[in-house]
Amino acid sequence: MPSLLLSKSVIEVAMHTILYIRQIYPAELFDRRRLFDIPVFQCIEPSINDYVSKAIKAVGEEIIEDNVSKVIINIHKSDKPLEKFIFSFDRPKDSGSPILDPERIPLEVLQRQMRAMLLKLNTIDAQLLPLMASSNLSFSFMMELREENVHGFPEDSFDSDVSSPDVSLGKTRGKENQPEVCTTYDPALVHIIRAGAFNVSLYVQESHAKELSAQTRHGD
């Protein structure tokens, strides 16, 4: 159970971190905090924070039931996908890898792995092309369930008085009904958390639209 709860926590912090480091919202909407003994950022805008909390609550419920295959955070401008951050939940038993008893993994070992993932995420800017400077940037959150577990998931959005783009919240099975996502470049592995009964791998993927945008700006 500690590994499940920590996985939920690290995804929540990662979600706030991605919104901060990729400048989806202004820096003044974030507070500096500490988790796993490292600095992290949390959005303090009520409607955004409420949305993230609802999304993570839904993820936590499915993680406990071992239903989650992937958690995907898409960054896009209008209809153009720019980046996606993929948290892939893999069962070692499905790949033939040795299974570690999660109850025998020391808590400090799990925390160290999660700290390493967040530290790498904090410096991911150096590896990615810059996003288009625009107030039209937004994000969407998707949770992909394993084939045998499918549930409905209502859409959600911010209140109309919030000066931020809408975000959507959804569940899919496999690749069914997913929005257009970054397909040009292969996903790059950032870090793996080995939590015993499951592993959490973080990947980042960029779309060709970012490169085209950069070339257009340089050509002006």
Automatic annotation (TrEMBL):
SUPFAM superfamilies in the cross-refs: The spindle assembly checkpoint protein mad2
Domain HORMA, chain residue ranges per copy: 1-197
GO cellular component: zeta DNA polymerase complex
Disordered, as annotated region: 154-179
Top-level taxon of origin: Eukaryota
Family membership: Belongs to the MAD2 family.
UniProt cross-references to PANTHER family, sorted A to Z: MITOTIC SPINDLE ASSEMBLY CHECKPOINT PROTEIN MAD2, MITOTIC SPINDLE ASSEMBLY CHECKPOINT PROTEIN MAD2B
Name of the protein: HORMA domain-containing protein
